[in-house]
Structure prediction request, 118 residues.
Amino acid sequence: QVQLVESGGGLVHPGGSLKLSCTSSRSIFSINTMAWYRQRPGNQRELVAKIRSGDRTNYAESVKGRFTISRAILNGTLYLQMNNLKSEDTAVYYCYLDDRFNGGEEYWGQGTQVTVSS
Prediction:
């Protein structure tokens, strides 16, 4: 079982920045895919950004150029740097880890609230 613990959410004004962190209870050295998803009020959960082996990244069109996903292998942490935040970025953000490549499962964090409001 893998535990994912997110932090860094909060209230920010439009145009502001936040950095989310997600710490894994197991090493992420051999993990092929990690990602950030979000669920906005009244909407389904959607992919925000994904990072795969070789640090290949993908982003939702709505966040390209504003958000950056990265990971620190040595401390088992996934990050999401969010700049120029907009009200439509308000959501609960979830960390995701796919361990199926190693015979494991998919895991989700508990979510962290990001609210963008003036």
The radius of gyration is 14 Å. The CA atoms of residues 99 and 105 lie 5 Å apart.
